From TrEMBL:
Pfam family, one: Aminotran_3
EC class (word): transferase
Provenance organism: Caballeronia arvi
Lineage: Bacteria, Pseudomonadati, Pseudomonadota, Betaproteobacteria, Burkholderiales
Name this protein carries in UniProt: Acetylornithine aminotransferase
Entry's EC annotation: 2.6.1.11
Annotated family: Belongs to the class-III pyridoxal-phosphate-dependent aminotransferase family. ArgD subfamily.
Cofactor(s) listed: pyridoxal 5'-phosphate
């Protein structure tokens, strides 16, 4: 019989790319999680905005079980029924005509960026110097060499140079800088509609509109990275729908599989035609298990009551956080869209979001950092209201304790 694993095994056997909490979650049901010691927590972290429908959702469990008893993997020398159903549902519910499937947000973004460069190559624009990719400071688009270079945080990219050339970073939410910086040499612009990893900073409507106008003027592709904001997280199926502005390419992952790894790039028929056979691919992308789960996730999230519920839960979170702040004065700003919420620490608490997360664990609730200065909440879209309020009660205890604890 194999010995029980413990937290110290991580330090012995796993590459130290993460510094996980000392507790090990063992079981989840809905928005509740139990650790190895049987302690119960309210999950307001959602696996970093992934488990949008909570843990062990009965419809997803049934779908995965049914598919696992049928067909696991055939490779892309064949297609399969679940991925065709998923592609149909994604394209029918968005601006897109075609979908490409991968295993993660980074891979979906890699595909989007490669497609932009491929379009420039095929049209002859690349030969005329139209190869520049514009991204934004403090953005995050993944961990591959290409996507980490496009991401606007040097701490993630500097150790891996030399980096791919032809990438420009502009200030986020600066409309004039975008209008000036997107030029005839720009082949694509990639932007998060809410910058997640750097502090939950929503893009303004004016900024997004300017990006669309300028990209159209210089014939650059506009890519919306909705890896974190997509699949209901903001209260719309995808965040772009709330802005009323369509991209040329959209990427999504995270909540699409509710924890089962899958990512997707969505685009138009005309652009997809540049991805000719063999030009790009993914061994596991769109495999039957992942596609079946994602198809069911999308069906559930598209239900009107699910999306309406996000808005209701957003209001509760904002009200409770503001009440907590009125009591403690810990936060300088509370912001976000739907159930992607950031609470920025005030000046005297700067740099201590990790400590606040630890206090939250002690109080019985899972939360997240969004950089050193921001607490992030990303709970399930369907978290029961009584569980949400229980979690916010625990959050209040954590903030009070944090405020009273010297650095």
């Amino acid at each position: 019989m194999q010995e029980a694993v413990q937290r110290s095994d991580f330090d012995k056997f796993v590459a130290p790319t993460y510094s996980p909490a000392q507790l090990i979650p063992q079981r989840g049901q809905g928005s509740l999680v139990w650790d190895q010691n049987g302690r119960r927590y309210v999950d307001l972290a959602g696996g970093v905005a992934v488990t949008g429908l909570g843990h062990a959702h009965p419809e997803l469990v049934a779908t995965l079980r049914e598919q696992s008893e049928s067909l696991w993997h055939v490779g892309n020398v064949f297609t399969n029924e679940p991925v065709l159903a998923l592609a149909k549902q994604l394209t029918e519910s968005t601006f897109a005509d075609r979908a490409f499937f991968a295993n993660s947000g980074a891979e979906a973004n890699e595909a989007a960026l490669k497609l932009a460069r491929k379009v420039a190559h095929d049209t002859g624009d690349a030969q005329r110097g139209k190869t520049e990719i514009v991204a934004f400071q403090q953005s995050f688009h993944g961990r591959t060499l290409f996507t980490v270079s496009v991401g606007g945080q040097s701490k993630y990219s500097e150790p891996f140079g030399p980096l791919p050339p032809g990438i420009k970073h502009l200030p986020f939410n600066d409309t004039q800088a975008a209008l000036d910086g997107i030029t005839e040499q720009t082949c694509a612009v990639i932007v998060e509609l809410v910058q997640g990893e750097s502090g939950v900073r929503p893009a303004s409507a004016e900024f997004v509109d300017a990006l669309r106008v300028r990209c159209s003027a210089v014939n650059a592709l506009l890519i919306f990275d909705e890896v974190q904001t997509g699949v209901g997280r903001t209260g719309e199926l995808f965040a772009y729908l709330g802005y009323g502005i369509e991209p040329d390419i959209l990427t999504t992952a995270k909540a699409l599989g509710n924890g089962f790894p899958i990512g997707a790039m969505l685009t138009s028929q005309a652009l997809a035609e540049h991805l000719t056979a063999g030009s790009h691919g993914s061994t596991f992308g769109g495999n039957p298990l992942a596609a079946a789960v994602a198809d069911k996730v999308l069906e559930i999230v598209r239900r009107p009551e699910t999306l309406a519920g996000v808005k209701e839960r957003h209001a509760i979170c904002m009200q409770r956080l503001n009440e907590i702040n009125a009591r403690t004065s810990v936060f300088a700003d509370i912001r976000g869209r739907g159930l992607l919420i950031g609470a920025e620490l005030g000046q005297q608490f700067k740099g201590r979001s990790g400590k606040l997360v630890e206090h939250a664990y002690a109080a019985g609730v899972f939360t997240l950092m969004a950089g050193p200065d921001v607490l992030r909440l990303a709970p399930s879209l369907v978290i029961p209201l009584d569980v949400l309020n229980e979690g916010m009660d625990a959050m209040e205890r954590a903030v009070v304790q944090f405020a009273a604890t010297p650095e």
